[in-house]
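Before a colleague's protein record goes any further, I have to sign it off. What it holds is a sequence and that sequence's fold in token form. My question to you is simply how this chain folds and whether the tokens agree. Thanks in advance; the entry in question is below:
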Amino acid sequence: MYLIIGLGNPEEDYSNTRHNMGFNVINKIANQYKIEVTKSKFKGLYGNGIIEGEKIILLKPQTYMNLSGESIKQIMQFYKIEKEQIIVIYDDIDLKPGIIKIRKAGGAGTHNGMKSVIQELKTQEFKRVRVGIGMPKEKENLIEYVIGAIPKEEKEKLDQATNTAKEAVIEIIKSGIDTAMNKFN
């Protein structure tokens, strides 16, 4: 069983922001595989389904970004999911908009959601798919940049990146992370 987590913020006000790339990817996976992510438990919204013959759980923590790890830890404990079976999808300012990167492990960088995940799981050893959102221009406030509305000229590029990230997650499940990294990185 795989647990696929998209990081984001729960309120509608955040739905069109750079910080919700993880939620956007989960929504696209759910749509493609007809999985309803509507069950409310473990401080999150989740749904169960099958992707490429594998049982999966899609999770959108509802704790707000900075406490995402709490939701992930709870659902992992309940379903007895090992760290090797999780994939975390999130936005990354260190990648140019539209670029995705798959990693087997690593630190959190400046991402507070990932800091929470690493702190709660007590490991950096889990798969992740990073969706590039780029850096703010001219020292713009970072918080405003990640939770502000996405400009129209950038929206198409980020939408394509979330499509690519969706395909990368499916490839990880189907063929393993090494194959996915060779194909998408």
